[in-house]
Give the backbone structure.
Amino acid sequence: MTGIRAKARLETTSEIKRLAREQIASKGAANLSLREIAREMGMASSALYRYFASRDQLLTDLIIESYDDIGSTVERADAKCSREDLAGRWRAVSQSLRTWAITNPSDYGLIFGTPVPGYEAPTDTIAPALRYTNVLLRLLADVQAAGCRPLITVPTTKGVSREYKRARANLGINLTDEMILAGLAGWAALFGAISFELFGHVDTVFTDPGAHFLALSEMLGSQMLGMK
Amino acid sequence: MTGIRAKARLETTSEIKRLAREQIASKGAANLSLREIAREMGMASSALYRYFASRDQLLTDLIIESYDDIGSTVERADAKCSREDLAGRWRAVSQSLRTWAITNPSDYGLIFGTPVPGYEAPTDTIAPALRYTNVLLRLLADVQAAGCRPLITVPTTKGVSREYKRARANLGINLTDEMILAGLAGWAALFGAISFELFGHVDTVFTDPGAHFLALSEMLGSQMLGMK
DNA sequence: TCAGTAATGTGAGCACTGCTCTCGTAGTTG
DNA sequence: CAACTACGAGAGCAGTGCTCACATTACTGA
């Protein structure tokens, strides 16, 4: 059963992934080299294909792990707060997002950066990708249930409410149009700010982007989303 | 002066760039192959190095062109509006941003996607990169001058106003803390939303992301930024 | 227990990549 | 017209992902 091979396989697999992450961090996903991994491990490059069908498969596995990592990080941050402390939960979630992104910049790039054209995200990635999303959705539901109202209204554009109706169905939630718009706006602002910071678009403007990010998330939570 | 060579050089250079963009669009920046470009042009691969010092140099040149392209697109959209029509200008700018991104997805990815670690953006890219930013900054300045006030206040976090003071100096602008925060929030939300859409993170949620984007930008402009 | 099977590692090899170097040719310029 | 320089060709180097035939070695069922 749990013989020598099964154990060795696990170890080899995770060692490959570890070295792959190292390479991606130092030289970028584009320059990930299976041969170099094999060299570092002292084995023939062809042996790697016993563990991963291709370079793309290895990358996909790393992406799934990263989704799970950010998912559990955000879940933990949210779980630490009292359920009624909505503003505190929003703060915890947004801070944990940025912290995770800064700690694992190459993983963030892997997930939220430029995708490879034609790379169809395998279905295996969908569930892990939903974990961090669900934390926000649950928070929004709790906000709505607590009677908080976002400080905004939805412009009466034809098609918008139909689109939001569809979103409710697809995501299995029951949020008002205002809440959906406000939630997506906050979500987009957080990730936009993190991407700007991580991808080097505000280097010349800020010296302490964290201070701005904190102000941003406070503003989004308390004022736009109306959390108390 | 303007001999046969000078003319041929311009033509060859732009033909290389054209084919490069084609390749990036179909196979991604990571899979851009100089040899394939040479093959398609019917010339030796080594000849390409008379025009671009390296693959990276070619990519850098493409990035600069893209910055200029998005910059002029946004400038044109803004210029079409009456100066006093602040809400109209915001709408025009944000719509032109998304339209450009959707029309040129690979260029958007090149600029706003995952950067290559260690790739130091050459100084040549700074000026073109500021063009689209400046359109927003001028709009924010006009909004402030018109007496509009964003519907938000800046949380009194220590360090934030110091940071915004620095931003004022670095960008050569004179906006209030509220306006800076609101402007950056709106900016981040727009790009966050575009990135989510383009990089395939809302595929399963929306069928017409444009409707949501319009609602988002209207909300950001009229309510968060307080444009009239 | 022991033969058969399946998992694992090897090394050669194919077709590709970016890039360099030498060498000949053909525009340009004093 | 001679000297110079820009340009293109082709060979070659070191690297890549991936495949395949071939050993070896751990597991497994009779």
Q: What stands out?
A: Residues 5, 8-9, 43-44, 46-47, 50 of chain A lie near DNA strand C (CB under 10 Å from a C1'). The first helix of chain A runs from residue 4 to 27. The CA atoms of residues 5 and 84 of chain A lie 49 Å apart.
